[in-house]
Amino acid sequence: MLTVNAYAATSATEPLAPTTIERRDLGPDDVLIDIRFSGICHSDIHTARSEWGPTPYPIVVGHEIAGVVREVGSAVTKFAVGDRVGVGCLVDSCRECDNCRKGLEQYCLKGSTGTYGGVGRDGEPTQGGYSQAIVVAEAFVLRIPDGIELDAAAPLLCAGITTYSPLRHWNAGPGRRVAVIGMGGLGHMAVKLAHAMGAEVTVLSQSLKKREDGLRLGADNYYATSDEETFRELAGSFDLIINTVSATLDMDAYLRLLAVDGTLVNVGAPEKPLSVHAFSLIPARRSFAGSNIGGIAETQEMLDFCAEHGLGAEIEVIPAEKINEAYERVLASDVRYRFVIDASTF
Ligand code: NAP
Ligand code: ZN
Ligand code: ZN
Fold first, then answer.
1. What is the pLDDT of residue 201?
2. CA distances from 162 to 116, 124, 187, 243, 265 (A)
3. What's the average model confidence in pLDDT over 307-335?
4. Quick check: CB of 335 below 6 Å from ligand 1?
5. What is the rounded distance in angstroms from the CA atom of residue 324 to the CA atom of residue 236?
6. Has keyword Cytoplasm (predicted)?
7. Smallest CA separation from ligand 1 atom 4, residue
8. Ligand 1 centre and the CA of 328: distance in Å?
9. 181 lines ligand 1 (CB under 6 A)
10. Angle (nearest 5°) at CA 306 between 305 and 307
11. pLDDT (tens digit, 9 = 90+) per residue, 269-279?
12. Does ligand 1 come within 6 angstroms of the Cβ of 72?
């Protein structure tokens, strides 16, 4: 076993603090990765604070991992020492149910294994990316193309794929009007990706403070949702809305912005339920949907798409000792647009 430095949450209310954790011995198909950068996803905060139900403490969160292969197991074929690799939200699944066979490991019928908060093949709780190194089965390791810097690549492993997958599934592209609610970690990637896919992109943010950034990242239009007029002006105007907001919103107000047959996809995962009035859907045959990250093959497709289009996340690199401060800034919507931890500081 390998002992590595990490940062862990020990309760819902204590700040994250330095610790050490054990990584399992390398199995034949395992890859040992030296983590270089680890993104801070809002899901890490929901989990660290038990907002989605009780969290098994102590927990090392982090599922936006970019690093370099240090060692490979005897049966590994896809990766070699020195390769630039990533790990996202999944480290295993049953690999044989209908969904796994279709490359939808995130919807594994037997339940996929999360990068943290799950149970690993060694029977131990899985611990995530806020650490120096990780051991992952090669089937769940992604290749980071040369064109993307490792720090800007890390957030693609969750924020990137979580927005890429619904944009693809609901056909974002030329002639399609896509709105993105919330311009944080997921939201700013949704803007970049939807623009690169050729859609007309509108940001719906709480204020106009980040308008210039939004337009620079590829938005065609930018509106403040604090202004009632926004909802009147945009009524019935979008084919697809991606909601990335981590808090509960008035869904009816946003559903009314959809055109006939439009879909609002919720990727934001607030602690409290979202309510929907039937008459926000009925008069325009609208759909209200959800989407969970993406499968492994689709995550690789997303990374290759980003390399081809010169896309990475907009990041602020921080040392590990600033994690708790970064959490407060994420909660205050003061993130531009993803914090990424320099793993050499764990
Ligand atoms: P984030 O960086 O905090 O971004 C969320 C954005 O939502 C904020 O920047 C802000 O944008 C807006 N917002 C925040 N509070 C708001 C409020 N009270 N009212 C209106 N808008 C508000 O978070 P993230 O990392 O992108 O994650 C967003 C959500 O997605 C989280 O709930 C996370 O757990 C979830 N998530 C889901 C999946 C999945 O697979 N479905 C994967 C990853 C994350 P503006 O300042 O522009 O308004
Ligand atoms: Zn995430
Ligand atoms: Zn499965």
1. 98
2. 17, 27, 10, 11, 11
3. 97
4. yes
5. 41
6. no
7. 184
8. 13
9. no
10. 90
11. 999 999 999 99
12. no
- Residues 251, 246: Cα–Cα separation, whole Å: 13
pLDDT per position as a tens digit, 146-184: 999 999 999 999 999 999 999 999 999 999 999 999 999
Tokens 């801070």 belong to which residue? 40
Residue of the nearest CA to atom 12 in ligand 1?
182
In the block, which residue shows the tokens 């993307």? 148
Point out the ligand 1 atom lying closest to the alpha carbon of residue 45: 34
Structure-derived torsion over alpha carbons of residues 319, 189, 120, 144, reported in degrees to the nearest 10: -80
Contacts of 154 (CB under 8 A, 6+ apart): 37, 38, 39, 64, 65, 66, 86, 313, 315, 338, 340
- 0.90 surpassed by pTM: yes
